[in-house]
Design brief:
Blueprint (H helix, E strand, L loop, with lengths): L1 H19 L18 H4 L2 H16 L3 H6 L2 E5 L9 H12 L4 E4 L2 E3 L2 E3 L3 H14 L5 E4 L2 E4 L12 H7 L2 H18 L3 E2 L24 H15 L8 E7 L20 H6 L2 H9 L4 E4 L18 H11 L5 E3 L6 H4 L4 H11 L4 E2 L4 H13 L5 H17 L13 H4 L3 H14 L1 E5 L18 E5 L9 H10 L4 E5 L5 H14 L3 E5 L10 H8 L6 E5 L14 E4 L5 H11 L33
Parallel strand pairs: 1-2, 1-11, 2-5, 5-7, 7-8, 8-9, 9-10, 13-14, 13-15, 15-16, 16-17
Antiparallel strand pairs: 3-4, 12-17
């Protein structure tokens, strides 16, 4: 499968290079260099000039306040409220009255679970919003796992750490290309991906599986591949964003909730955190998103990097020579809001060097504050003009001057393609990483199951109303007859868990436990269940469809298999591997202190194959 992708991508890159390279004077023509050109170098000069001209034309029609509004991107949720509702009127006001420059597609959260959008409904709504705006809106979305991060009826690609475990950058390049296609079909032109963080802190609560891993050079290679893939299709131009600068991987606080600190030295940051960002810049990344983290080695003044001139201008612009768009992370995150109100946060972000003000808590207050800062000479008009020109040029490059509406009828054929499904399945299978498989006294290892019909499967969903584990249970039933599989709720009474443990002691050969947590603590009464299962005398195979670090909590299990995420392709791959239908060959993209080193992984052959 990867061979076909490699061929297709090679052809695409050749078409891009030879189809759009700048014209050369015949006398000055030289053989092509072996090193592929950056995206900026591979754009035709005439196209760049047209984009710049279009941006200046748009800008000429904007007054000072409207120029500030172009820096602001406000949220939408993929649904389509009634045109007479207050919510819809608020959307209209932001576009027609405030004249914001862009929208960011988010998900509503109900009962603790994200509600993904219907693709056609979301695209139709974005079309309506585009019709309201004289200057085309640019629409962004988190797309770290393709459109599936925000949309239904799309291929649920594995988490980036699964790509890191598989170690095939060709697959990552294919993910970038697929993500660009999906985005443009839905009316999204700005991909808030890839994640360029080096996740070298096992206690990181917010990056974790979103990172390719903890090896800076491996992360850099995958980041570069994603950017190349996303830029490889001229029919689907997108703005690509590396995040979260200067690196959110070595933190142990969620910046949605508070202000984390990166305590590493400047030398260590240069050698680790900045490596993927340098690779992103070399690959022609369009935008870099700031992190709401404090980094004393980079700025002695307290406060988040998002609001730091030393970080955004001194380090990113001047030292790393990044000339693209600097975007803030959401300005509604408490890493910022605990320190400043919406207006002052926007002013400080602009002063620090940000071009895009993403998701301020109060867009009107944000715009008013920046305008007031300009009138008071705290912010120069030329500073705002430079950012506006970057953003308008990005809109022109994305082709929004010619076409800002999407074809709703064409959407289904651009999403969840057979090739995307094959890519997701292949990555999920190659990502599986086995860290424990201790044989019993007879030399029989827990995996693959020697007697599948005697195994007891316990699937530990994270909540009563969660859909987690349902597909997993059905997959087990499809592959095993009879199947002793139980989907559990962490709030079940201990008496029920004690009964399950007693049944396992008397009637199970191997106990298989599937978990979904993205940290190292199981919810509710699950820890007590695990303790009870540990006293049964039966071998336990722990399957992590979430955090790879769960082994820290249960280091004595006889088998431990990592899948790096709970997408359907990973669930299917895990079941097939446990049953011996597919082999396991993944390598740890992160280390687990005292338990696993970077690159560790046991091979598991298919049932019946020669060892």
């Amino acid at each position: 499968m990867f061979a076909r992708i490699r061929v297709a991508l090679t052809l695409a890159v050749l078409a891009l290079v030879f189809g759009v390279a700048p014209a050369l004077d015949a006398a000055a023509a030289k053989p092509a260099a072996k090193k592929p050109p950056t995206r900026a170098a591979s754009r035709p000069g005439s196209a760049e000039r047209r984009a710049a001209t279009q941006a200046k034309q748009w800008m000429a029609h904007l007054n000072a306040r409207e120029r500030v509004a172009q820096l602001v991107m406000t949220p939408v949720y993929g649904d389509s409220p009634n045109a007479r509702s207050k919510e819809y009127r608020d959307y209209v006001s932001r576009i027609v009255t405030l004249k914001v420059g862009g929208l960011v597609l988010l998900n509503r959260v109900r009962d603790g679970f994200a509600q993904k959008a219907e693709p056609v409904v979301a695209a139709a709504f974005l079309n309506r919003m585009q019709r309201l705006s004289k200057i085309p809106l640019i629409v962004a979305a988190d797309a770290e796992r393709g459109a599936s991060m925000r949309m239904l009826h799309t291929t649920p690609f594995p988490y980036l750490m699964a790509f890191g475990a598989g170690g095939d950058v060709t697959a990552t390049r294919a993910l970038g290309r697929a993500t660009a296609r999906e985005a443009r079909a839905l009316g999204v032109q700005w991909i808030l991906a890839p994640d360029a963080d080096v996740n070298n802190n096992p206690d990181n609560p917010v990056i974790n599986l979103r990172s390719f891993g903890e090896d800076p050079n491996a992360v850099a290679a995958h980041v570069r591949a994603f950017i190349e893939g996303a830029h490889s299709d001229p029919a689907n131009p997108v703005v690509v964003t590396a995040k979260h600068f200067p690196g959110h991987g070595d933190t142990d606080v969620d910046s949605h909730l508070d202000l984390p600190r990166l305590t590493a030295s400047r030398e260590r940051i240069d050698q680790v955190e900045l490596v993927p960002f340098r690779a992103a810049i070399a690959a022609g990344v369009d935008s870099i998103m700031s992190a709401h983290i404090e980094a004393p080695a980079l700025d002695s003044k307290p406060g988040p990097a998002t609001l730091s001139t030393a970080v955004l201008t001194g380090l990113l612009r001047e030292d790393l020579k990044f000339n693209g768009i600097i975007a803030t992370d959401s300005l509604q995150m408490q890493g910022v809001t605990k320190l400043y109100g919406p207006g002052e946060a926007c002013v400080r972000a602009v002063l620090a060097g940000a071009d895009l003000l993403l998701d301020p808590a109060d867009p009107k207050e944000c715009i008013n504050a920046v305008v007031a800062a300009m009138k008071g000479k705290r912010i120069e008009q030329s500073r705002v003009n430079a950012s506006v020109l970057k953003l308008l040029t990005a809109k022109a490059r994305a082709g929004l001057a010619k076409k800002k509406l999407v074809d709703l009828e064409a959407i289904p054929d651009s999403l969840d393609t057979p090739e995307d499904q094959e890519l997701a399945s292949s990555v999920a299978e190659h990502a599986l990483t086995l860290l424990r498989n201790t044989p019993d006294a007879n030399g029989v290892a827990p995996l693959p199951l020697a007697q599948p019909e005697r195994a007891c499967w316990f699937v530990l969903a994270n909540g009563r109303f969660s859909t987690q584990g349902r597909d997993f249970v059905e997959t087990v039933k499809q592959h095993t007859h009879p199947a002793q599989v139980t989907l559990l709720d962490p709030q079940l009474p201990m008496s029920e868990f004690e009964g399950l443990a007693a049944q396992a002691r008397g009637g199970c050969g191997t106990i298989v436990v599937a978990t979904y947590v993205t940290h190292v603590t199981l919810p509710g009464n699950y820890p007590a269940l695990m303790e009870k299962l540990g006293t049964t005398g039966r071998p336990i195979a722990l399957l992590s469809l979430g955090s790879p670090y769960l082994l820290r909590t249960y280091p004595n299990v006889q088998a431990y298999l990592n899948a790096f995420g709970a997408v359907p392709a990973a669930e299917t791959a895990v079941v097939r591997a446990v049953l011996g239908e597919i082999g396991v060959s993944g390598r740890m993209p992160v280390s687990i202190p005292g338990l696993a080193r970077l690159g560790d992984g046991l091979r598991l052959e298919t049932r019946g194959s020669k060892k």
